[in-house]
Design brief:
By secondary structure, the protein is of the alpha/beta class. It has one domain: Aldolase class I (TIM Barrel), CATH 3.20.20. It has twelve helices and ten strands. The strands form two sheets. Strands 1-2-3-4-5-8-9-10 form an eight-stranded parallel β-barrel, surrounded by six helices. It has a two-stranded antiparallel sheet with strand order 6-7. Helix 2 packs antiparallel against helix 11 and helix 8 packs parallel to helix 9. The chain is globular, with a radius of gyration of 18 Å.
């Protein structure tokens, strides 16, 4: 493998919880995030500045951010889709704002109420305002490999959108397989094209395990030199606006694979698994990650 180190962005407090039927209390979210940080996570999606009627699980975003401790080296990320969301974000202590632009017009219209081009224009304004107010500005192209309404999405389409988004000089460029349709060679091809066009801009990959190839895609992404991979403790989450888009890749299973492959993440797998077990108790049901069920190998208790 060409790269022996990758950073994990933990998305379970936002992308994970927003797609689950239960609404965790703010106190439980605070403990959840504290456990993730204790396991070594340094970047976490914790908030979503969208309409709370559409995503009630994120209705306490401002309250949560006011209560979260500021820890040196730990960055909290908030998702938004328009300038109204930015107005809310700027009133909080969130470190990074992340905007999503969907690669297809139909999905962007359903997700954000406007065609893709309008979201691109909004991003350019949002990025400038966010940076002027001391926030890190990042953007992610969603449904970059396939759309539930329009089907296949070409590499050329993703690169075309990325060129416009990069005009605002984001701190990183994210790519999301929002409905879990990609296969490893597609990750390799797209990352190669993005590197050809944008050089060394940090790349972040957001993968879903909807069709059970998420971990294979993550391995391909690391091999291709991606800087950040999103994952979700216990494998919770999906997308409330995409049909059947269940399954962020589990942080537990991902770290096990990377640890055994000699790829450094800086995370404690044991603490991640313990957090998954705690979360199962909080939600009162079994969760998708496989590792908490099967156990770490070799068994840490016996070596």
């Amino acid at each position: 493998m060409s790269q022996k180190k990758v950073s994990i962005v933990e998305v379970s407090p936002r992308d994970g919880l927003q797609s689950e039927p239960e609404v965790l209390s703010t106190a439980s979210k605070l403990e959840f995030i504290a456990r993730a940080v204790d396991a070594g996570i340094t970047r976490l999606e914790v908030a979503s500045f969208v309409n709370p009627k559409k995503v009630p699980q994120m209705a306490d975003s401002e309250e949560l951010l006011a209560a979260l401790p500021i820890i040196e080296g730990v960055s909290y990320i908030g998702l938004l889709m328009n300038e109204r969301g930015l107005d809310r974000a700027l009133e909080t202590r969130v470190h990074e704002i992340g905007m999503v632009v969907v690669a297809t017009d139909t999905y962007n219209q359903r997700n954000q109420g406007v065609p893709t081009n309008d979201s691109v224009k909004a991003w350019l304004k949002i990025a400038a305002r966010a940076k002027a107010n001391g926030k890190v500005a990042n953007v992610m192209i969603s449904a970059a490999f396939g759309c539930p309404y329009e089907g296949e999405v070409s590499v050329a389409r993703v690169v075309e959108i990325a060129k416009r988004l990069m005009e605002a000089e984001p701190a990183e460029l994210g790519i999301a397989d929002s409905i879990g349709v990609a296969v490893p060679n597609q990750l390799t091809d797209l990352v190669g094209e993005l590197r050809n066009h944008f050089g060394e801009v940090p790349l972040r990959m957001h993968l879903h395990n909807t069709r059970n190839v998420g971990l294979a895609n993550a391995y391909a992404a690391v091999d291709a030199g991606v800087d950040y991979i999103d994952s979700s403790i216990a494998g919770i989450g999906g997308c409330p606006f995409a049909p059947k888009a269940t399954g962020n890749i589990p942080t537990d299973d991902l770290i096990y694979m990377l640890d055994r492959s000699g790829v450094e993440t800086g995370l404690s797998l044991q603490k991640i698994v313990e957090t998954s077990q705690w979360l199962e108790q909080e939600l009162g049901r079994e969760l998708p990650a496989m590792l908490p069920k099967a156990g770490i190998f070799p068994d840490v208790a016996t070596g």
